[in-house]
Amino acid sequence: MNPAQLVSEHAFGKGGLRARMYQMHNGLRVLLLRDPAAPVFAYQTWFRVGSRHERVGKTGMAHLFEHLMFNETENHPQGEFDKLFERAGGNTNAATWVDWTYYQDDLPASELELAVKLESERMQHLVVKERPVETERGVVISERRLRVEDDVDGFMSEELFRLAFTEHPYHWPTIGWMRDIENISVQDAVEFYRTYYAPNNATVVVVGDIDEQNTLALIEKYYGHIAAQQIPPHAPIVEPVQTGERRATYKKPVMTDKLLIGYKAPGFSDPDHLRLDFLSDLLMGSMSSPIYRDLVIERELMSGISGSVTPFRDPGLYEIGGSLQRGHSATEALEILDAHLEHVRRQGPDAVAVERTRSRLLTSFYGNLRTANGKASSLGEYETTAGDYRVLFDAPDEIHKITARDLQAVAERYLQTSGRTVIIAEPDESQDDSDEDEDDGQDGPLSGVLH
């Protein structure tokens, strides 16, 4: 068996830590960082598959598989996977999004082989049959009803992306449309597993109190014989330029108006992504931020407002959302918000606010890297989404470089009404929510007017 080859390495902070990337003969990437601060480790497997890799009529596959991966394997019956981790004093979890699916394990340092053995087992020997598929389908259907059909915020988020994207797979939700979830076949699941759950489509990230050579030896022992698969090529999809505001208003069982806005935003690797994130934090990231202070504290027009830039590989959205106070409307808040954004576009942000935000972002950045799990998650996300884990280490320098003029420039580029989508939920006290038709997200608005 050919040993793993060192591909790259990078110093991590000022404490002598060093991240190293290896690649095995079957394409598996292995990213290791020894951090003996505590006798624990984080073991994460990042698969380069998410909802964007699905196709029309087959949405929800990636998320369904996140559930299926905790089921029976050829060598472990249903439920044993979690029990083995719990007995070892650890925990395990997973997440699916548009560009990736990842599985995380946190364990005492003495249990490294257990993690390697179990994760390699479910990469190659998951039992994909009718019973587990039907069981997890039912779980996902219930989850969709709870988080989308019966949750106004979930519904609004789904509608925002459905309206904002017309061509790109970001159009459909990670959980999938209900109609597609109901129609996923066992054969669909088998083909998805055999295609994407392959060593050449994954990165194993291990951070913590580990011996690097021993860790590599264990990974080679348990993963080395797993065959690579042919990963289908996914041609880049460029979303057409949006040339006018898209707006939808819905009657919902809410006490006050709710507002959600999505401006087209740059992809994760674009330098503007960090700049727009910086601007968002400056405008509404704290109680002293101008938009938050004006709308929430001084005018008492909203109960809260926040913004975030989607960390998607391709261009996504800059989302702004919040709830109105009684007696105030979403359109009223939108007018005041627009005035703030126009001010930033014309004059740029206040210099003192820029420095205050810079300090806050740096504190947050380093705070996210305090634990083994935090380090592993950041390394895995940058490697999978940006294509290179080393970009993570550039972030502090890039934060230091951002100027008020940079922030004004991204406001001018992205925060234009012609490139945004607006979703408003208004109180509907005359109609019981149960009387509304079920929406699968494909046939237009559940109720309301689309502008």
Shape: globular
Total E-strand runs: 13
Radius of gyration: 23 Å
* Overall number of structural domains: 2
So, the CATH homologous superfamily of the largest domain?
Answer: Metalloenzyme, LuxS/M16 peptidase-like
Strand order of the largest sheet: 1-2-3-7-4-6-5
What does the average pLDDT come to? 93
Q: How is this structure best summarized?
A:
The protein has 451 residues and is of the alpha+beta class. It contains 15 helices and 13 strands. The longest helix has 20 residues.
Description of the structure:
The protein is an alpha+beta fold. It folds into 2 domains: 5-223, 2-Layer Sandwich (Cytochrome Bc1 Complex, Chain A, domain 1), CATH 3.30.830.10; 246-431 and 439-450, 2-Layer Sandwich (Cytochrome Bc1 Complex, Chain A, domain 1). Helix content is 40%, strand content 20%. The protein has helices at 61-68, 80-87, 112-124, 130-149, 152-164, 178-183, 186-196, 212-223, 271-284, 290-298, 330-347, 351-367, 372-386, 395-401, 404-414, and strands at 5-12, 17-23, 29-34, 40-47, 91-96, 101-108, 202-208, 246-252, 258-265, 302-309, 316-324, 420-427, 449-450. Strands 1-2-3-7-4-6-5 form a 7-stranded mixed β-sheet, with helices on both faces. Strands 10-11-9-12-8-13 form a 6-stranded mixed β-sheet, with helices on both faces. Strand 2 (17-23) and strand 3 (29-34) form a beta hairpin. Helix 1 (61-68) packs across helix 4 (130-149), helix 3 runs parallel beside helix 8 (212-223) and helix 11 crosses helix 15. It is globular. The model is unreliable at 433-451 (pLDDT under 50).
